[in-house]
Amino acid sequence: MNRSQSLNAPPYFDGSNYAFWKVRMRVFLCSIDETVWDAIDVGWTRPESAKSTWDKEALTTANANSKALNAIFCGVSPNEFHRISHVTIAKEAWQILETTYEGTKKVKDTKLQMLTTRFEELKMSDEESFDLFYGKLNEVVIGKFNLEKKMEDSKIVRKILRSLLESFRAKVTAIEESKDLDDIKVQELVGSLQTYELSLPSQKKSKSLALKTINERVETHDTSDENEVEKDVAYLVKNF
User: Fold this and answer.
1) How far apart are the C-alpha atoms of 57 and 61, rounded to whole Å?
2) Does the reported pTM lie above 0.85?
């Protein structure tokens, strides 16, 4: 069975798209056993006593560390393996890859601050559809999630509602008056706004038609009628 299709093989990381691999690997480790992810999240310290004297709990955590480390080793390319082949603690291997591709805590904090600023400044522009606007917003949300900063649905919902064009005002008012914004799921809101947008008159088509008309009048006019054409163009521009 192909690696990408196997539920038993860890997701593969070749040095590209670390954020994608990190999320998938975390889920994969949890699917083995929650204690296996704990070996990454909490960490494991090898007891100083001889292994023969370890109790059941110590053996369980040691086994979880071994499973986590094995999954990471099997889930990376040879080049990435060289970075971590010397470690025996799964958490250390995870942190080496994390620091390599996400930077130190200071770097991560800087990235988070930049994403937060971008999140606050994003607004839907006249030239874009709702889907295009939401795609940009979702990139920021995913970026923060990959840096271990999950955003609450209620915050994203409120951001969307206050960032829409005036043409969505009636829909926004209806949502705010009929629903508790803390209970709305993002995908529920997105679906509702996508449907509403379909009912809006197409402004892009009328704008394109007006521009086409202006261009045609300019290209085909006789020089003797220049003043008349300028008046017509000014009229079209004003209405546009």
Assistant:
1) 6
2) no
Instruction: Map residue 194 onto helix, strand or coil.
Output: helix
Q: What's the number of CA atoms in the CB half-sphere (13 Å) around residue 208? A: 5
Whole-angstrom distance, CA of residue 200 vs CA of residue 167: 8
Q: Which of 40-44, 46-50, 169-173, 213-217 has the lowest mean pLDDT?
A: 213-217
Taking the C-alpha atoms of residue 194 and residue 200, their distance in angstroms, rounded to an integer, is: 10
Mapped onto helix, strand or coil, the DSSP state of residue 228 is helix
Of the CA atoms within 13 Å of residue 180, those in its CB half-sphere come to: 2
Strand-pair partners of 76: 13
Summarize the confidence of residues 154-177 as an average pLDDT. 95
Contacts of 149 (CB under 8 A, 6+ apart): 112
Residue 13 DSSP class: B
Using CA atoms, how far apart are residues 94 and 84, in angstroms rounded to an integer?
9
